[in-house]
Design brief:
Chain B: Keywords: ATP-binding, Nucleotide-binding, Sugar transport, Transport. Chain B: InterPro entries: AAA+_ATPase, ABC_transporter-like_ATP-bd, ABC_transporter-like_CS, ABC_transpr_MalK-like, ABC_transpr_MalK/UgpC-like, Mo/tungstate-bd_C_term_dom, NA-bd_OB-fold, P-loop_NTPase. Chain B: It comes from Kushneria avicenniae. The complex is a heterodimer. Chain A is mainly alpha-helical. Helix content of chain A is about 75%, strand content about 0%. Chain A is flat and about 70 Å long. Helix content of chain B is about 25%, strand content about 35%. In chain B, strand 1 and strand 2 form a beta hairpin. Chain B is α+β, with helices and mostly antiparallel strands. Chain B has 2 domains: about 220 residues, 3-Layer(aba) Sandwich (Rossmann fold); about 120 residues, Beta Barrel (OB fold (Dihydrolipoamide Acetyltransferase, E2P)). In chain B, the strands form 4 sheets. A 6-stranded mixed β-sheet of chain B has the order 6-7-8-3-9-10, with helices on both faces. A 5-stranded antiparallel β-sheet of chain B has the order 13-12-11-14-20. Classes of the chains: A mainly alpha, B alpha+beta. Chains A and B meet through helix 7 and helix 8 of A and strand 6, helix 3 and helix 5 of B.
């Protein structure tokens, strides 16, 4: 064996070792949550990295709690609403910011970006007052409002960037065909922006789905809570017991929808980025 | 179908004047080509007519109706864009039908019109394809089909052939000419290619720096250019320009002295009262070379043989080149010296402002230019 082939083999092995390390680093926490959730509570503190016996008692325990089911329902309502509102407003704003020339356009973009830089805590008390005034406290509406505020900046920025890449002549062709701005936006631009919308929609969904601080602050009763708060508030038999099994089971249940969404939209996102199917 | 009238149309972007007091009348069913170097404002002028840009000052009339503030659709125009701008996510059928559907035509009418349009443009078999599955020429035809499906009064073309390769360009040029004959609609066509302009146009509008240099038929522009700019722009290879001093001769026109040619009297009405500087223009095909016997004359620095004809490049004393068209069978060689002759009837003389001098009345064998000068 020559030195050159040996070097090649070593490099190849090194590459795959690196890949393996990265995979473990990224996936292990989630994997361990799955493993833990499948153990009966009696075996919980025996460290093992493989699933020896599958035990669904934790899942049964979690899913039999009406408050958890209500939390999932609330989360779905909130996340879906946030995505729809953010995409609708984001798309129309992106059209204005990316397509219409007006004075102060850059300033508006900068303000939009600036808003997104504030930490959540900084606006918490102010937002709390707003929500109280609007009578949205302890309801999904309050969460939808507050999440939309934090989702819109990046939605607008990403969609504006994509919108600017679409050729001017496409819009002019639509104008000549007699299309109003709304028709141009929905019938011509939206189908072309679909990959960008899938990406931003997904990010908005994940953000809304996993948000904790606002969800904890703006809700009071179990029936109005979203999943992250509900999981955090799962309690054991006494205050000295943390029910790890049910918590892990609940975590897995709420993560699965995200994974499914990413898998569904992944091909769209990738195809959108590579095809660039814009050039007429 | 309708005529278009521009009355002192101006367009400013900020403080830059892009279109400067342009007036013209385009007749019903006429094929007019806007031509000029890049940046002369020809595309802007087309977009003003289309309604994609607003007119800063002046009036635009279609069918005797002021349309300055109407949308492109209300003006009844169809437009073919340089990059085609087909909707990439729609099939050929949907692309052509889009405007019709927006105009709230019923399904049957839409279907009829689309199929009829497709038939005219030979797109029958391609209706279900997406634009990305079409060749350049086919995309071009879809773009034309989309523009004409609504049966607009006026069809506008913005450099529609510039994205096609040379062979396809000639073919599509022919198709557009035939289409005009068939539809009989008013067409306005923008190009920087003077061959396209000459072959397609009923009348050509030559634009330069935002104003109209000359309007006329291809023949008028070629044979009687109103200015030095038009003379240099129309025709390939370019017209030869020679700086001369011209002396007015009563009744006969004016006399010029040219090196390697000698004195000639041109039948042109000389505007200045006394001798003054002018530019003589002679097209390559009107320069007649003959071998120099005494070693005088101009040296041939290059011979371009094109099969059907040949071009001689002659160097003058000041280093400028003259181009001269000869028959392919002529035996001129590089390095030889030739003397030149030309028929004074085919000569053009431009004053110091670049304006052409009009031919004397009795020598008017060629149609008088009707174009306006500005």
């Amino acid at each position: 064996m020559t030195l050159r082939t040996l070097k090649g083999i070593v490099l190849k092995i090194g590459f795959w070792v690196l890949v393996a390390v990265l995979m473990v680093y990224a996936i292990f926490p989630f994997y361990y949550a799955v493993v833990t959730s499948l153990k009966p509570s009696s075996e919980l503190f025996q460290v093992s990295y493989w699933v020896d016996s599958v035990d669904f008692s934790n899942y049964a325990a979690v899913l039999s709690q009406p408050t958890f089911l209500a939390a999932i329902r609330n989360s779905v309502i909130v996340a879906v609403s946030v995505v729809l509102i953010a995409l609708l407003l984001g798309l129309t704003a992106a059209w204005a910011l990316g397509r219409v020339r007006f004075r102060g356009r850059t300033t508006v973009m900068m303000i939009v970006l600036g808003v997104s830089m504030f930490p959540q805590v900084a606006v918490l008390s102010g937002l709390f007052e707003v929500i109280r005034t609007l009578d949205l406290y302890n309801s999904p509406g309050g969460l939808i409002l507050s999440y939309t505020i934090f989702t819109l900046p990046f939605t607008v920025w990403i969609l504006t960037t994509f919108m600017r890449q679409l050729p001017d002549e496409l819009e002019e062709a639509a104008i000549v065909d007699g299309a109003s701005p709304w028709v141009t936006l929905t019938k011509v631009f939206m189908p072309l922006l679909w990959p960008a919308m899938a990406t931003t929609g997904l990010l908005a969904f994940i953000a809304a789905w996993n948000e904790f601080l606002f969800a904890l602050t703006f809700t009071l009763t179990d029936s109005q809570r979203t999943v992250p708060v509900a999981i955090a508030l799962i309690s054991g038999g006494s205050q000295y017991e943390l029910p790890w099994g049910p918590i892990m089971a609940a975590s897995v249940i709420v993560t699965v929808p995200l994974v499914v969404l990413v898998v569904i939209f992944q091909r769209r996102i990738v195809s959108g980025l590579t095809a660039g199917a814009v050039k007429g | 179908m309708a005529g278009v009238k521009l009355e002192r149309v101006n367009k400013r972007f900020g403080s830059t004047r892009v279109i400067d007091d342009v007036s013209m009348a385009i007749g019903d069913g006429e094929f007019v080509v806007f031509v000029g170097p890049s940046g002369c404002g020809k595309s802007t002028l087309l977009r003003l007519i289309a309604g994609l840009e607003s007119i800063t000052h002046g009036d635009l009339l279609i069918d005797e109706q002021r349309v300055n503030n109407l949308t492109p659709q209300e003006r009844g125009i169809g437009m073919v864009f340089q990059s085609y701008a087909l909707y990439p996510h729609m099939s050929v059928y949907q692309n052509i039908a889009f405007g019709l559907k927006l105009a709230k035509a019923d399904k049957q009418t839409v279907d009829e019109r689309v199929r009829q349009t497709a038939k005219i443009l030979q797109l029958d078999g391609l209706l279900e394809r997406l634009p990305k599955a079409l060749s350049g020429g086919q995309r071009q035809r879809v773009a034309i089909g989309r523009a004409m499906a609504r049966e607009p009064k006026i069809l506008l073309f913005d450099e529609p052939l510039s994205n096609l390769d040379a062979a396809l360009r000639v073919q599509t040029r022919n198709e557009i000419a035939r289409l005009h004959e068939r539809l009989g609609s008013t067409m306005i066509y923008v190009t920087h290619d003077q061959v396209e302009a000459m072959t397609l146009a009923d009348r050509i509008v030559v634009l330069n720096a935002g104003h109209v240099e000359q309007i006329g038929t291809p023949r008028e522009l070629y044979e009687r250019p109103a200015s030095r700019f038009v003379a240099g722009f129309i025709g390939s290879p370019k017209m030869n320009f020679i700086e001369v001093t011209a002396h007015p001769v009563p009744e006969q026109g004016c006399r010029v002295e040219i090196s390697a040619v000698g004195q000639r009297t041109l039948p042109l009405a000389f505007s200045a009262g006394s001798a003054s500087e002018a530019t003589l223009g002679v097209r390559p095909e009107h320069l007649i070379p003959s071998p120099s016997k005494d070693g005088q004359g101009l040296e041939i620095v290059n011979v371009e043989y094109l099969g059907s004809e040949a071009y001689l490049y002659l160097e003058r004393d000041d280093g400028e080149l003259l181009v001269c068209r000869t028959q392919a069978s002529s035996s001129f060689q590089r390095g030889e010296r030739v003397v030149l002759d030309f028929d004074p009837v085919h000569a053009h003389l431009f004053d110091r402002d670049g304006r052409a001098m009009a031919p004397l009345a009795r020598h008017e064998s060629i149609t008088e230019p009707q174009g306006t000068m500005s």
